Fold this sequence. Notes:
The chain is α/β, with parallel strands linked by helices. Helices cover 32% and strands 25% of the residues. The protein contains 4 helices and 5 strands. A 5-stranded mixed β-sheet has the order 3-2-1-4-5. The protein is globular and about 40 Å long.
Amino acid sequence: xxxxxxxxxxxxxxxxxxxxxxxxxxxxxxxxxxxxxxxxxxxxxxxxxxxxxxxxxxxxxxxxxxxxxxxxxxxxxxxxxxxxxxxxxxxxxxxxxxxxxxxxxxxxxxxxxxxxxxxxxxxxxx
Length: 126
């Protein structure tokens, strides 16, 4: 099974997204492919085009985020740009899963989770 690990850099207050970053990973968390886009810097692309490219890249793989902010921002982007939400796959909050299954409900940040799981950050190649 493949998963899309998603990170949106944006502002929840105004729904503006500066960057969409994602990695397609397998069950062993091996990175199979990456997606990166800065919609405002990709002229003349607008957010509707960016979200369509992201949708096509994702396919039907479930999404995983770290926390609720990226989930909220993704849903906001889709609805504000008049896009159909029917394509949305299942979305999992990785932080919630980690806190329930590993840290005993202790609030955890991503750096702590990676340390506990013995993971090292990887640079994304464009």
